[in-house]
Automatic annotation (TrEMBL):
<dbReference type="InterPro" id="IPR043129">
    <property type="entry name" value="ATPase_NBD"/>
</dbReference>
<dbReference type="InterPro" id="IPR000600">
    <property type="entry name" value="ROK"/>
</dbReference>
<protein>
    <submittedName>
        <fullName>Glucokinase</fullName>
    </submittedName>
</protein>
<comment type="similarity">
    <text>Belongs to the ROK (NagC/XylR) family.</text>
</comment>
<dbReference type="InterPro" id="IPR049874">
    <property type="entry name" value="ROK_cs"/>
</dbReference>
<dbReference type="Pfam" id="PF00480">
    <property type="entry name" value="ROK"/>
</dbReference>
Length: 318
């Protein structure tokens, strides 16, 4: 009998749902824009509606459970969304309990970056490894850690908020309220802000000269076309990421660092600079740790959420 899990990836922009089998294959998937401003009841109705539509269309033989990936901070021990910035009303909200009322299957809740780490560990680039650090580099920077073949969750299940380790004393203001965080320097918006400021000061760049938005996508496009400033900015971004990744390598001693998120779409351009920084500045015993591209792309969290249901149900993914 084929066993499947329902994976839910709840974000401020989209709610995605999928039926996933024991090998991590997506059998069916649906998504719709998150009606975030309508509040928790409406968002939970969206989650259940997507799941119902998947089940009605696919008629799976056996559903082992529902795994939900959501942005933090989450107290996954208590099952509570403490304060999700992109989802108004999700403040001290008992997300797991409210979903469990609505589903006849066991529900598990996980921080989105930890869920992505689980996805890559169970089904992606980290399959077969006992130690990895997953880092998503996108609107923010988040992470998940697998150590000695176990998911590191820490107090309240809030481990691996890697974007908020300090990299510059009294540095740039981070959205978390602190200064000098890795996220404040290495995230997509931080990269775009640097590009905007430097483009204003440079006469020789093509960045922004067409009147379009100056964002990470336009900077990488300009770099591919040979723009010197754009290439300098990309090299600086790779160095910033390399600095953060080197700290994570020293702390967790992983087999690999897995990079996901929006900026990972430019992995081929960033990876040489990241790896060069690690080779230069990591302690000698750690210089051989490779940075790898997430194999599941933007589905790491969705598949990882489904993987939660298999792990909780003691069904070993193969």
């Amino acid at each position: 009998m084929q066993q499947v899990a329902i994976g839910i990836d709840l974000g401020g922009t989209q709610v995605r749902a999928a039926l996933v089998d024991e090998q991590g294959r997506i059998l069916a998937r649906l998504a719709e824009p998150t009606d975030a401003l309508a509040g928790p009841d409406r968002v939970l109705a969206q989650i259940c509606g997507l799941a119902d539509r998947l089940l009605a269309a696919s008629k799976p033989a056996s559903v082992v459970g529902v795994g939900v990936s959501a942005p933090g901070p989450l107290d996954t021990v208590a099952g509570v969304a403490t304060d999700i910035p992109t989802l108004p009303g999700f403040v001290d909200f008992p997300l797991k309990a409210e979903l469990q009322k609505r589903f006849p299957f066991p529900v598990d809740l996980e921080n989105d970056a930890i869920a992505a780490a689980i996805g890559e560990w169970q089904f992606g680039i980290g399959k077969g490894l006992d130690n990895l650090v997953y880092v998503t580099v996108s609107t923010g920077i988040g992470g998940g850690v697998i150590s000695d073949g176990r998911v590191i969750r820490g107090r309240k299940g809030m481990a691996a908020h890697v974007g908020h380790m300090s990299v510059v004393p009294d540095g740039e203001l981070c959205p978390c309220g602190n200064r000098g965080c890795f996220e404040a320097y290495g995230s997509g918006p931080a990269f775009a802000r640097r590009a905007q400021l430097r483009a204003m000061e440079s006469r020789g760049t093509t960045i922004g000269r067409d009147g379009g938005a100056i964002d990470s996508r336009s900077v990488f496009a300009a770099a591919r076309n040979g723009d010197p400033l754009a290439n300098q900015l990309v090299d600086e971004e790779a160095e910033i990421l390399g600095r953060g990744f080197t700290s994570l390598i020293h702390i967790f001693s992983p087999d690999i660092i897995v990079m996901g998120g929006g900026l990972s779409h430019e992995f081929d351009r960033l990876q040489p600079g990241i790896q060069a920084y690690i080779s230069q500045w990591a302690m000698s015993a750690f210089k051989d740790v490779k940075v790898m591209l997430a194999a599941l792309d933007q589905n790491s969290g969705l598949i990882g959420a489904a993987g939660l249901a298999f792990l909780a149900g003691k069904v070993a993914p193969t």
